[in-house]
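JOB MANIFEST
job_type = single_chain_structure
chain_count = 1
residues = 533
[input]
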Amino acid sequence: MRLKRHTYYLFCSISAAILLTLCWEPFGFFVTGFVGFVPLFFLEQKVREQKDSSTLFFIYVSLSLFLWNAAVTFWIWNATAFGAIAAFIINMLMMSLPFVVYHRMQKRTHDNRAEWIFIFSWIAFEFWHLNWDLSWPWLTLGNIFSTAPSIVQWYEYTGYLGGTFWVLFVNFKIFNYLKIFNERSVVMNFSKAFNLLFFWLFAPIFLSYYISIKYTETEHPVNVLVVQPNIDPYKDKFGNMTPFEQTTKMLKIAEEKMDSSVQLVCFPETSLMGNLDEKRLETNESIQLVRQFMHKFPNATIVSGADTYKFYDDPKQKSTTARKLEGDEFYDVYNTALYVDSSQNIQIYHKAKLVPGVEKMPFPKVFHYLENFAVSLGGTSGSLGNEDSSKVFNTYYGHKIAPVICYESIYGEFVGTYISKGAELICIVTNDGWWGKTPGIYQHFNFAALRAIETRRYVARSANTGVSGFFDAKGNIISKTEWWKDDAQKATLNYNSGETFYVKYGDYIGRFSCVVALISIVFYWRKSELAEY
């Protein structure tokens, strides 16, 4: 009998992991997300009914969450085995907390309102995971709709946390329906199923299509070229090819598709390399090659990723990430975006959202002694310098562009801050070649669709290796490149203005959920203690 119970628990655990995995690339069956948590809710109910220990429940839930994390983001292993294991375990533990809270609430109060506590606790976890030093929000549930942007046009009001709420709410509705399915008549079952499907599944989709039909924009066209130089990050980019050779190759690919109508050219993350001292950029050979390219195409302006550094004239002004050279000389290394036009003033933006354990050491005051163990991705190891916030580039033509660097593109509220500062177009520069041809590169590419909807901005995406392309303001793919192919793509995009509700108010659903979850947990815990007393 006990073996049969554990078989049931294991079935629930594994089936939930499978259903949740199917939501993501390479499958993209977002529908399974609406039932992905249902097996775990049945697992919780069974453990409680059998009076098994909470530890047992935690073990089976953690197993399911670990399998889900590993199955969807296994590609991290291609770059760093330690980082992959750390990401799987930390994410698993954080995801387990809302389940633990839900289980304890059910045991103490037997109150269906524990379901709401779970929903708000989960969203609070996702919001927290967006804003701390070990941030890894890749598996935010609202991301599963990145392959179906047409059904979540209301993200311009809620952001992707609104998608998380939708997924969790429907999971509980289906769970509660299945619990009482056998107790109802055929007519009642049909009626309940119809209400469930129409109101909680189809209504948000109908709303999305209505918003899409009503959406209009003023035309301010701009011709944009994105370049994918396809330089192997493991063999060539930081080894066999010189910065001069890399820049030459990149410009040659661009020139094949260039014409006088192109106003903006986007080159990928860290595409300009080789001793780019920010105080002497014009003397750098890569910048000089770019200038020669622009002489051929005087209408063009350029947004490019770069690997730059800056020395501090006064050692007292050095940052916490500054590196010591010799004597009292200190400098910072940056993952940078540059804007170059016909003027002599090159605009600079340093990546603000750095990758934990790769570009920055989390909790530096505690783990500063581990600085030298930071993973080397991007040609440098150790913590990089960074901006405190986003920054927009002011173009030669009087428009503003958001230079979003790689990892930053998975943060909805952060990308919204570019728009608050006037950005009319989003330019993502990235290098996804670290992961190989795995689902990771397609997941990252598709996330740009959600940023387009949330901000109602067109997106140009330039990847060194990965997938480059364009999205319109509804999140639809205009065109894209193939994996591991030298290519350049050209499209006519639109400069949009104005702010969506989400841009104005950001992750308000996350903040609200944090408050509600905290108050509810304290209230119900106190209530149960008084009842026991």
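[summary]
The CA atoms of residues 391 and 487 lie 28 Å apart.
Residues 81-109 form the longest helix (29 residues).
exit_status = 0
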